[in-house]
Design brief:
This protein has three domains: 11-187, Rossmann fold; 202-356, TPP-binding domain (Rossmann fold), CATH 3.40.50.1220; 370-556, Rossmann fold (3-Layer(aba) Sandwich), CATH 3.40.50. The chain is built from 23 helices and 19 strands. The chain has a six-stranded parallel sheet with strand order 3-2-4-5-7-6, sandwiched between helices. Strands 15-14-16-17-19-18 form a six-stranded parallel sheet, sandwiched between helices. Helix 1 (14-24) crosses helix 2, helix 3 packs parallel to helix 4 and helix 12 (232-242) packs parallel to helix 14 (329-339). The chain is globular, with a radius of gyration of 25 Å. The protein binds adenosine-5'-diphosphate, ligand TPW and magnesium ion (MG).
Length: 570
């Protein structure tokens, strides 16, 4: 397409301009699913050296792109067809935006003229309008010479400030437009400094330091924003130089090891209730932190908050923030460190009290984990997986489900940053296999995906993708025959209960169907052996871990959010 007869000017086209614009900006991988009008875009991108990973459902491709964005700080790219493919990808785009993950959903779309007159084009839909309220920014490119600007705007919107999802609409007609190759080249834009540092104000830093140094019972809470920021050394120095105990949110686990002497994870209830100054670092005071008030926290007015966040409007979203520190985490933490030079340390009485509580809770948990049961309950199955991650701290743990999620989060210690990927802010099911694929591709590390049997069902067909790309992914399904438990029944006796699945299902056979390794295990020892084998061999593996159907609790740890629990209280 590029070269034409010698007497005519050399031309390029929309397809190549999109590919060249992505490559110019350091994009190496596209996650997507082919079809009209983007089949050739995928083919050509592959031919031009981009890695193009094809999925079985766009939502999983979108989740892969989102987590690639979280892991690398570059926007993950998801490529879909129009209307239905676009909508399938849109859930992932909205989820990425909610979680502050940078991604760009690029979808082909139908003829504008026909769509706008609603004349019934193939896969007709006003995609731009539909995407807009669900993402951080949305753009459409109509002319080949604007592709460079369109891609640049999408990249900058995704990664600057608070990261998020961006939609880029590319109508079918655009791809076949041709322009002079030199004009095309000069129309491309390399985005310089896409996520500029944002230095906090001096006064704001002083206000935060004064508050912190006046604290008797200080606490730092790290959220996934702190993991995303990749300011790992500064974050570690902050904790170690100040001696302040820290609590990691789920995906911030491992930023400092969960086994660190100052990790307060095992004394969560105590520190949230008793801290007098709480510093949030890349964590929002949303439902996951009970909005900073109520039973989880101390009496109103007894606790003051410092919040580090790149998004100024996050401040005071739920309660008053006494010391807002607006800026990127690297710059903010570095500025704080200048004022914490070792002359000030968190009071030892507070730190020692936390240690006593922690030791007590850790001993209780160790006892629970040392009593293997057959059939396995969740703790029996988690004990060997805790050991696996201890032995392979560089492996990436993907985790979803209800009991499977909540209990794994508490039991499995993490040792390195950005190694725990899970359901995030929405508690959404089905992110597991998309995350697993991208984690393997972006990091080259082994991936252990611990999935509830229901959670797995939302994305299970991607086992074929994992086999096709021969990825070092080991999926462990905690198979308790259902959602939360496998014991519900239809009171009328007509149908299965609404939360149960086929009893004794053999998910391992699905993996075998595509040439991967499938194993079914019933004991902790068998489980440990099978996971070790999978991670050592790097072969795509699915382990069906049979869990007692009666072992789980309704909604895992968040049963209090079920409306019927409010009814029962009345
Ligand atoms: P968690 O669920 O782990 O508590 P959240 O997703 O609620 O974390 O919060 C992440 C926060 O981190 C968001 O408010 C986001 O604006 C912020 N954030 C993301 N990247 C950065 C960064 N580089 N610097 C500062 N704040 C950031
Ligand atoms: C997209 C609601 C929350 S947790 C869950 C569902 C369906 C599954 C729990 O069962 P699982 O885990 O995975 O077998 P376990 O160990 O407790 O048995 N649809 C979406 N997201 C959510 N969160 C739901 C439904 C839900
Ligand atoms: Mg289940």
């Amino acid at each position: 397409m590029r070269a034409t007869a010698s007497e005519e000017p050399e031309l390029t086209d929309g397809f190549h301009l999109v590919i060249d614009a992505l490559k110019l900006n350091g994009i190496e991988t596209i996650y997507g699913l082919p079809g009209i009008p983007i089949t050739d875009l995928g083919r050509m991108a592959q031919a031009e050296g981009l890695r193009v990973v094809s999925f079985r459902h766009e939502q999983n491709a979108g989740n892969a792109a989102a987590i690639a964005g979280f892991l690398t700080g570059k926007p993950g790219i998801c490529l879909t067809v129009s209307a239905p493919g676009f909508l399938n990808g849109l859930t992932a785009l909205a989820n990425a935006t909610t979680n502050c993950f940078p991604m760009i959903l690029i979808s082909g779309s139908s003829e504008r003229e026909i769509v706008d007159l609603q004349q019934g084009d193939y896969e007709e839909m006003d995609q731009l309008a539909i995407a807009k309220p669900l993402c951080k920014a949305a753009f459409r490119v109509l002319h080949a010479e604007d592709i460079g600007i369109g891609v640049a705007r999408a990249i900058r919107a995704a990664v600057s400030g608070r990261p998020g999802g961006v939609y880029l609409d590319l109508p079918a007609k655009l791809f076949a437009q041709t322009i002079d190759v030199v004009k095309g080249k000069t129309s491309l834009v390399k985005v310089i400094d896409p996520a500029p540092v944002q230095i906090p104000g001096k006064d704001a830093v002083k206000r935060a330091l004064d508050l912190l140094k006046g604290a008797k019972r200080p606490l730092i809470i790290f959220g996934k924003g702190a993991a995303y920021a990749q300011a790992d050394d500064a974050v570690r120095d902050l904790v170690e130089k100040s001696g302040i105990p820290f609590l990691p949110m789920s995906m911030a686990k491992g930023l400092l090891p969960d086994t660190h002497p100052l990790c307060a994870g095992a004394a969560r209830s105590k520190v949230l209730k008793e801290a007098d100054v709480v510093m949030l670092v890349g964590a929002r005071l949303n439902w996951l932190l009970s909005h900073g008030k109520g039973k989880t926290w101390g009496a109103p007015g007894t606790q003051k908050f410092i919040q580090i966040d790149i998004e100024p409007r996050e401040m005071d979203s739920n309660i008053e923030i006494a010391a807002p520190l607006v800026g990127d985490i690297g710059s903010c933490v570095t500025a704080l460190l200048e004022g914490i030079d070792g002359s000030w340390k968190a009071p030892s009485e507070w730190v020692d009290g936390i240690k006593a509580k922690k030791d007590d809770n850790i001993a209780k948990m160790a006892k629970k984990l040392s009593q293997p049961k057959v059939p396995m309950d969740f703790h029996s199955a988690l004990a060997p997986l805790k050991q696996v991650i201890k032995e392979r701290p560089d492996a990436i743990l993907v985790n979803e489900g209800a009991n499977t999620l909540d209990l794994a989060r508490g039991v499995i210690d993490m040792y390195q940053p950005r190694k725990r990927l899970d359901v995030g802010t929405w508690g959404v099911m089905g992110v597991g296999l998309g995350f697993a694929v991208a984690a393997a591709i972006e990091t080259g590390k082994p991936v252990l995906a611990v999935e509830g049997d229901s959670a797995f069902g939302f994305c299970g067909m991607e086992v074929e993708t994992i086999c096709r790309y021969n990825l070092p992914v080991c999926i462990v399904i905690f198979n308790n025959d259902g959602i939360y438990r496998g014991t519900d029944a239809d009171p009328t006796g007509r149908d299965p209960g609404t939360t149960v699945f086929v009893k004794g299902s053999r998910y391992d056979k699905m993996m075998e169907a595509f040439g991967g390794v499938g194993v079914s295990v019933t004991t902790p020892n068998e489980l440990k052996r099978a996971v070790d084998e999978a991670l050592s061999s790097g072969k795509p593996t699915l382990i069906n871990a049979v869990i007692d159907p009666a072992a789980g609790t309704e909604s895992g740890r968040i049963g209090n959010l079920n409306p019927q629990s409010a009814l029962k209280k009345k």
